[in-house]
Amino acid sequence: MRINKLLSNYGICSRKEARKLIEEGRIIVNGSKCIQGQWVEESDDILLDNEKLLPKKKVYIAFNKPVGVVCTAASHVENNIIDYINYPEYIFPVGRLDKESEGLIILTNDGEMANKILESENMHEKEYVVTVDKSYDEEFLNNMATGVEILGVKTRPCKMERVSDDTFKITLTQGLNRQIRRMCKTLGYKVVILKRIRILNLYLNDLEIGKWRYFNEKELY
Predict the structure, then answer these.
(1) pTM for the full predicted model
(2) Which SUPFAM superfamilies match (predicted)?
(3) Same domain? 158 vs 195
C-alpha cells in the first residue's frame, strides 16, 4: 500500500498530513528518505522521526454532536469537531452530519474501519429522528420509503416509522449530501430538527448533547 494509507491505517495521521511529513523528510523507508506516493510493505523498516513506525492503539469514540459543530478535521474551519472535542491524539470524524443537524457521529484513528462504514455498497444502516414543519400523511411516508428523486438519482428504499403528526424515524443505507433534507424538500416539507440516533449497532441512547464516550469495535458489527 502507499505510505499515506499505512500512516492512516496505523492511526498516526491523515493521508494529507502524511504528505507533509514526507516533504519535511521525517519518514525513512529501508534507510532512504521516503518519497511522495511511495509503495511500502508492513515488513519494511519504516522510521518516523528516527523511531520505528508502530500502529497506535485504536480509538473509537461516539459523540453526540450539537447543532453548529462542523464535521471536519480542517483546523481553519470555525467550530470544527476536532477543536470541539479537543482529544489529545489524532482522530477524525467518520462521514458527516451537517452543521444544522445533531446526534451520533463516530470519531476514530482507524482508517480501515472508517472505510468499511463509508463504502455505500456495504448497505450499513443509519437511523434518524426527524421533525418537519407541518403534519404529514401516509402518502409522504410511502414516498419517502420507496425513494425520492434528488441530485439526479432516486434514493434507495428506506424504513419509515411514524412517531407523531410531524415527526418520524427514518433508516437509510446510503449517505447522499443532505439526503433527508433534500428528500423532504422535494415532497414539500422542511426539516426543523434532524437527529441521528444509530449507526449500525452503535446507539446514541442517553449520551448527552456535546458529550462523547469510548466504544469498542464489537459495538458496531
Answers:
(1) 0.88
(2) Alpha-L RNA-binding motif, Pseudouridine synthase
(3) yes
